[in-house]
TrEMBL record:
Pfam families: PK_Tyr_Ser-Thr (PF07714), SH2 (PF00017), SH3_1 (PF00018). This is Tyrosine-protein kinase. It comes from Cyclopterus lumpus (Lumpsucker). CDD domains: SH2_csk_like (cd09937), SH3_CSK (cd11769). One of its GO terms (cellular component) is cytoplasm.
């Protein structure tokens, strides 16, 4: 007897595993890789009613699609699962035992710091090839040169090219998971040939943010040059696969190329980041209602993170994006972690970070609430930098003595009171995002009544 699977609830996203042409008028044709959203299960449990990204509806066969799953292995996801870091020659030989021709790993060179060693099992013994790093390129034989380890490994899996054997099977470091496999398994892999990159809309230390087209949909793409930063962005993308809310910038998929390029594809936000939006529009364009709606949009997203035990850690108007229809969405999940973990505070934006997070690295939803208060101040001062005229080194000592910024010009007293509640020095006394949302909704209703 075959087990009948529990039907997927409405709103479930799934990814097409095969092309489906459709056999009747009611069917919704799709191509492999298309993302479909379930509307309801039909009378026949093998068929669902679903809609595609352009809103067209129809029936689809359940066995042609896979449900999208959140990718959970944050810290364990690796672009180079065969890279074992600092291990000795003897440890490498033990790891490649029992000998299986073509089994390989890469380690840091013990004799030549800065270089690497490719260790390959071949005919019952292990060969060690020194990978020399010169002028920003890697090479084993001074003939083939590679940008990074991934390119080098990819080359030798296709062709032995002077090695004792070609690389056949990676010896994966214990506890790590190949990022590419996890993103495919969860239904988040996209195809590079369907992505057309257009122009650069932003630059970061990691690479460029570009606007592109994916199968007819306008998208934003973070293009990450492979190295340690790509590893950090893999963690960011895995967090984004677990989060879905109308006020969070939505991940559409991930492309990991064999040569190590990483592309993170998200929905395109036409009006850019909130801080630039506020500065360029100003008071003449944006009335009190528009400002309150931005405040509420961000609060809704943060309440969702609060419920799911995620902490953002870098909430600021520069990390909020504005859509074509003026909806604010929280982005930049680079530092987002599940609650209760610590991090290096050297890179933290002092003016946005709560005193306890700066002092004791104590991050919590309540430290996000503090940052939210600063973000409200940014909204009502139309994108000014917080703590104007106070030198950066004096901000923390003054704040710890109880200093709070003044009410921005033209900001309603009720909203300023909300900011001050967020800046309580005692984290436990700060409101939750749920309370903040209720207060803002109340303020908005009060405004509507006055009109």
């Amino acid at each position: 007897m075959t087990e009948v699977q529990t039907p997927w609830p409405q709103g479930t996203e799934c990814v097409a595993r095969y092309n489906f042409k459709g056999t009747s008028e009611q069917d919704l044709p799709f191509n492999k890789g298309d993302v479909l959203t379930i509307i309801t299960v039909t009378k026949d449990p093998n068929w669902y009613k679903a809609k595609n990204s352009s809103g067209r509806e129809g029936t689809i066969p359940a066995n042609y699609v896979q449900k999208r799953e959140g990718v959970k292995f944050g810290g364990k996801l690796s672009l180079m699962p065969w890279f074992h870091g600092k291990i000795t020659r003897d440890q490498a030989e033990l790891l490649l035992h029992p000998h299986e021709t073509g089994l390989f790993l890469v380690r840091e060179s013990t004799n030549f710091p800065g270089d690497y060693t490719l260790c390959v099992s071949c005919d019952g013994k292990v060969e060690h090839y020194r990978i020399i790093y010169t002028n920003g390129k890697l090479s084993i034989d001074d003939e083939g040169y590679f940008e990074n380890l991934m390119q080098l490994v990819e080359h030798y899996t296709k062709d032995a090219d002077g090695l004792c054997t070609k690389l056949i099977k990676p010896k994966v470091e214990e506890g790590t998971v190949a990022a590419q496999d996890e993103f495919s398994r969860g239904g988040w892999s996209m195809s590079r040939k369907d992505l057309k990159l257009q122009q650069v809309i932003g630059k970061g230390e990691f690479g460029d943010v570009m606007v592109g087209d994916y199968r007819g949909t306008k998208v934003a793409v973070k293009c990450i040059k492979h190295d340690a930063t790509a590893q950090a962005f893999i963690a960011e993308a895995s967090v984004m696969t677990q989060l879905r809310h109308d006020n969070l910038v939505q991940l559409l998929g991930v492309i990991v190329e064999e040569n190590g390029s990483l592309f993170i594809v998200t929905e395109y936000m036409a009006k850019g980041c909130l801080v630039d939006y506020l500065r360029s529009r100003g008071r003449t364009v944006l009335g009190g209602e528009a400002l309150l709606h931005f405040a509420l949009d961000v609060c809704e997203a943060m309440e969702y993170l609060e419920i799911h035990n995620f902490i953002h850690r870098d909430l600021a108007a520069r990390n909020v994006l504005v859509s074509e229809d003026n909806m604010a969405k929280v982005s930049d999940f680079g530092l987002t972690k599940e609650a209760s973990s610590t991090q290096d505070t050297a890179k933290l934006p002092v003016k946005w970070t709560s005193p306890e997070a700066l002092r004791e690295k104590k991050f919590s939803t309540k430290s996000d609430v503090w940052s939210y208060g600063i973000l409200l101040w940014e909204i009502y001062s139309f994108g000014r930098v917080p703590y104007p005229r106070i030198p950066l080194k004096d901000v923390v000592p003054r704040v710890e003595k109880g200093y709070k910024m003044d009410c921005p010009e033209g900001c309603p007293e009720v909203v300023y009171n909300v900011m001050k509640q967020c800046w309580n020095l005692d984290p436990a006394a700060r409101p939750s995002f749920k309370m903040l949302k209720e207060w803002l909704q109340h303020i908005i209703q009060g405004m509507i009544k006055k009109q």
